[in-house]
Amino acid sequence: MSTASSLPDTTALAAAVAGPVLVPGDPGFAEEVTGYNLAAVTAPAVVVGATSADDVAEAVRWAVVNDRKVAVQATGHGLYADLGDTVLISTRRMDTVNVDPDARTARVGAGARWRAVIDAAAPHGLAPLNGSSSTVGVVGYTTGGGLGPLSRRFGFAADHVRRLEIVTADGQVREVDPERNADLFWAVRGGKGNLGIVTEMEFDLMPVARFYGGGIFLPAAAAREVLHAWRTWAPTLPDDASTSVALLQLPPDPALPEPLRGRYAVHVRFTHLGTAAEGEVLLAPMRAVAEPLLDAVGEMPYAAIDAVHMDPPQPLPFADRGATLASLPAEAVDALLGVSGPEAGSPLAIVELRLLGGAIARAPQVPNAVVGRDAAFSLVAIGVLAGPSAGGVPGALKGLAAAVEPWTSGALVNFPADGDPWNGPDRERLEEIVVRHDPAGTFATNLALARRSPAR
Ligand SMILES: Cc1cc2nc3c(=O)[nH]c(=O)nc-3n(C[C@H](O)[C@H](O)[C@H](O)COP(=O)(O)OP(=O)(O)OC[C@H]3O[C@@H](n4cnc5c(N)ncnc54)[C@H](O)[C@@H]3O)c2cc1C
Predict the structure, then answer these.
(1) 145 alpha carbon to ligand 1 midpoint, in Å?
(2) Which residue, of 29, 95, 100, 151, has the fewest CB within 10 Å?
(3) How would you classify the pairing of strands 70-73 and 87-90?
(4) What sequence ranges are listed for the domain FAD-binding PCMH-type (predicted)?
(5) Average pLDDT of the chain?
């Protein structure tokens, strides 16, 4: 492996690709590598602002010839790799979104974000299987599984991918679907960035134009009651309802509704695809637990789906950690409150429990490498790496993981813990496919799997 100081001349690469080729110090380099997570910015040796699959293929071939590893970034929401010394392929220019209302599909470029798909699908009464925030990238989210407010009804986003185009480590652009490159089709849907750079993805849209939902914010004093009520109420919901509950330490942000600013609050999130009247009946037991600070649940167009989780849309420096839980008995809730409840003095900004089950637990029509299907709940915690409590965040994330360890079954690929989340026979199959398509570990920087393979 050559070092950053001996980076080969990029002139030939710049001549071969249509997009910009930038090295540290070039104007525009910092903007190109900066994404949503401001704490994850590291320094690749060169960044290629790809405009097409051909640009991606040129960049991969150049990286291989010059003995560099390849990383990819669309939005920077989910960067866990060290980009140091890599060739970073920035896909943000490849942001086309085409909706076919008759086929009920969307075909998107590698840099598309969910907001663009939601807005293109909505006029046709259709919706994609996006997650909690529409600022997230479609491809990174979907290749990691993709768990959102419609997942209990329809499954993981990866379960509804129809075809992909991907550049593999040999620099070839490959069409991937259940017939062509079927092993890659299985592996990329759940195996995330380990197989190559996805340049295009086609997936199903769902006939969803509206929902009844949003969030109820409850005071810190009710945290214990709310979490205990939620853990018994949530599993009684039908598949067309989704819910999560989050312990939030909200900033004193004037953009937030007044009763929430600077408060510790418990946020019960809810989405139901039935009528508003049916949704009200389902939600009534949670509404009865305590007097809310704010009740923002109602009838909404699907395009307003961000209102359910209210994730921060602006980039910020953060660290996160996930786990899947096999069950959530009263002792697990007590353990969680012990380290992250209102009296615990935790620096974590968000600690969220999400109900899984329903279609999430069912095998998809075409099997894939998605993990976490059999878990009952997902836990995600986020700490902001700024301000006086930033230093306590890594320890608090570890402490929370330790507290719920007795009930932990693994982790989702999109919300990883330490190490990689794949296990069991699927892990062996995934590793075999990764090693066969990428024997030199060209894409090893995307997630941990490839680093552990015997090929390197
Ligand atoms: C605010 C927020 C809300 C979230 N909500 C949810 C949620 O509700 N459900 C859920 O499942 N996840 C959620 N996530 C996690 C998110 O799905 C992952 O972080 C995902 O990796 C983000 O993809 P990206 O392209 O936006 O990020 P990037 O940082 O650009 O990419 C992250 C990784 O995705 C892979 N990747 C990206 N592009 C490609 C490509 N073209 N080819 C191959 N691999 C690629 C690579 O491994 C890359 O390192 C959330 C994250 C944030 C920050």
Answers:
(1) 10
(2) 100
(3) parallel
(4) 40-208
(5) 93
